[in-house]
Amino acid sequence: MVSLNALNKITTDKCFKQMLYLYTKVILGYTKNNRVKDALQLFYEMPIRDIISWNSMTKGCFNCGDLAMAKKVFERIPEKDVISGQQPLIGLFQHGRVENAEILYLQMPSRDIAGWNSMIYGYISIIELQMLSSYLR
Question: CA-to-CA distance for 20 and 32, rounded, in angstroms?
Fold first, then answer.
Protein backbone atom coordinates (compact mmCIF):
# COMPACT_ATOMS: atom_id res chain seq x y z
CA MET A 1 0.00 0.00 0.00
CA VAL A 2 1.25 3.47 -0.89
CA SER A 3 1.51 5.89 2.00
CA LEU A 4 0.19 9.42 1.79
CA ASN A 5 3.74 10.79 2.09
CA ALA A 6 4.95 8.62 -0.81
CA LEU A 7 1.97 9.62 -2.94
CA ASN A 8 2.55 13.29 -2.12
CA LYS A 9 6.22 12.98 -3.09
CA ILE A 10 5.36 11.30 -6.41
CA THR A 11 2.77 13.98 -7.21
CA THR A 12 5.12 16.79 -6.21
CA ASP A 13 8.00 15.35 -8.26
CA LYS A 14 5.75 14.96 -11.29
CA CYS A 15 4.44 18.53 -10.93
CA PHE A 16 7.97 19.93 -10.65
CA LYS A 17 9.05 18.05 -13.79
CA GLN A 18 6.05 19.32 -15.72
CA MET A 19 6.59 22.85 -14.43
CA LEU A 20 10.29 22.75 -15.42
CA TYR A 21 9.34 21.50 -18.87
CA LEU A 22 6.79 24.30 -19.32
CA TYR A 23 9.16 27.04 -18.11
CA THR A 24 11.92 25.77 -20.39
CA LYS A 25 9.60 25.66 -23.41
CA VAL A 26 8.49 29.24 -22.80
CA ILE A 27 12.13 30.34 -22.42
CA LEU A 28 12.98 28.67 -25.73
CA GLY A 29 10.00 30.40 -27.34
CA TYR A 30 11.14 33.79 -26.07
CA THR A 31 14.69 33.31 -27.33
CA LYS A 32 13.51 32.03 -30.72
CA ASN A 33 11.67 35.35 -31.03
CA ASN A 34 14.74 37.32 -29.91
CA ARG A 35 13.17 38.24 -26.55
CA VAL A 36 16.17 37.36 -24.42
CA LYS A 37 15.23 39.84 -21.65
CA ASP A 38 11.84 38.17 -21.20
CA ALA A 39 13.50 34.76 -21.24
CA LEU A 40 16.03 35.81 -18.61
CA GLN A 41 13.33 37.31 -16.39
CA LEU A 42 11.34 34.10 -16.50
CA PHE A 43 14.48 32.00 -16.02
CA TYR A 44 15.48 33.87 -12.87
CA GLU A 45 11.91 33.72 -11.52
CA MET A 46 11.81 29.92 -11.86
CA PRO A 47 11.48 28.34 -8.42
CA ILE A 48 13.84 25.54 -9.46
CA ARG A 49 16.16 25.04 -12.44
CA ASP A 50 17.58 21.84 -13.87
CA ILE A 51 20.49 21.35 -16.27
CA ILE A 52 18.12 21.42 -19.25
CA SER A 53 16.80 24.86 -18.31
CA TRP A 54 20.36 26.16 -17.73
CA ASN A 55 21.54 24.79 -21.09
CA SER A 56 18.46 26.19 -22.85
CA MET A 57 19.04 29.64 -21.40
CA THR A 58 22.72 29.60 -22.37
CA LYS A 59 21.89 28.52 -25.90
CA GLY A 60 19.12 31.11 -26.12
CA CYS A 61 21.51 33.91 -25.17
CA PHE A 62 23.97 32.78 -27.84
CA ASN A 63 21.20 32.50 -30.43
CA CYS A 64 20.07 36.05 -29.63
CA GLY A 65 23.63 37.31 -29.97
CA ASP A 66 24.04 38.24 -26.31
CA LEU A 67 27.47 36.66 -25.81
CA ALA A 68 28.16 38.47 -22.54
CA MET A 69 24.94 37.19 -20.97
CA ALA A 70 25.53 33.69 -22.37
CA LYS A 71 28.89 33.70 -20.61
CA LYS A 72 27.32 34.90 -17.34
CA VAL A 73 24.62 32.22 -17.44
CA PHE A 74 27.16 29.54 -18.38
CA GLU A 75 29.46 30.48 -15.52
CA ARG A 76 26.59 30.17 -13.02
CA ILE A 77 25.57 26.62 -14.02
CA PRO A 78 26.00 24.68 -10.77
CA GLU A 79 26.79 21.29 -12.31
CA LYS A 80 27.72 21.27 -15.97
CA ASP A 81 27.11 18.26 -18.19
CA VAL A 82 28.51 17.36 -21.61
CA ILE A 83 25.97 19.58 -23.39
CA SER A 84 26.72 22.58 -21.17
CA GLY A 85 30.38 22.30 -22.05
CA GLN A 86 29.64 22.38 -25.77
CA GLN A 87 27.20 25.30 -25.83
CA PRO A 88 29.86 28.03 -25.52
CA LEU A 89 32.07 26.44 -28.18
CA ILE A 90 29.26 26.22 -30.71
CA GLY A 91 27.95 29.67 -29.76
CA LEU A 92 31.36 31.28 -30.23
CA PHE A 93 31.76 29.68 -33.65
CA GLN A 94 28.26 30.85 -34.63
CA HIS A 95 29.39 34.41 -34.00
CA GLY A 96 32.75 34.05 -35.76
CA ARG A 97 34.78 33.99 -32.54
CA VAL A 98 37.05 31.15 -33.62
CA GLU A 99 40.03 32.20 -31.50
CA ASN A 100 37.84 32.52 -28.40
CA ALA A 101 36.43 29.02 -29.02
CA GLU A 102 39.95 27.61 -29.41
CA ILE A 103 41.12 29.25 -26.18
CA LEU A 104 38.04 28.01 -24.32
CA TYR A 105 38.57 24.49 -25.65
CA LEU A 106 42.22 24.47 -24.57
CA GLN A 107 41.21 25.70 -21.09
CA MET A 108 38.62 22.96 -20.58
CA PRO A 109 39.56 20.75 -17.63
CA SER A 110 38.84 17.62 -19.67
CA ARG A 111 38.84 17.65 -23.44
CA ASP A 112 36.68 14.78 -24.56
CA ILE A 113 35.22 13.57 -27.83
CA ALA A 114 32.14 15.78 -27.43
CA GLY A 115 34.29 18.90 -27.16
CA TRP A 116 36.38 17.89 -30.12
CA ASN A 117 33.22 17.19 -32.15
CA SER A 118 32.00 20.70 -31.35
CA MET A 119 35.31 22.14 -32.53
CA ILE A 120 35.13 20.17 -35.79
CA TYR A 121 31.53 21.29 -36.30
CA GLY A 122 32.57 24.89 -35.73
CA TYR A 123 35.49 24.71 -38.15
CA ILE A 124 33.32 23.10 -40.83
CA SER A 125 30.66 25.80 -40.34
CA ILE A 126 33.27 28.54 -40.84
CA ILE A 127 34.65 26.84 -43.97
CA GLU A 128 31.15 26.47 -45.41
CA LEU A 129 30.45 30.17 -44.81
CA GLN A 130 33.71 31.12 -46.49
CA MET A 131 32.93 28.90 -49.47
CA LEU A 132 29.45 30.37 -49.77
CA SER A 133 30.82 33.90 -49.55
CA SER A 134 33.33 33.13 -52.32
CA TYR A 135 30.59 31.62 -54.46
CA LEU A 136 28.31 34.64 -54.07
CA ARG A 137 31.00 37.12 -55.17
Answer: 18
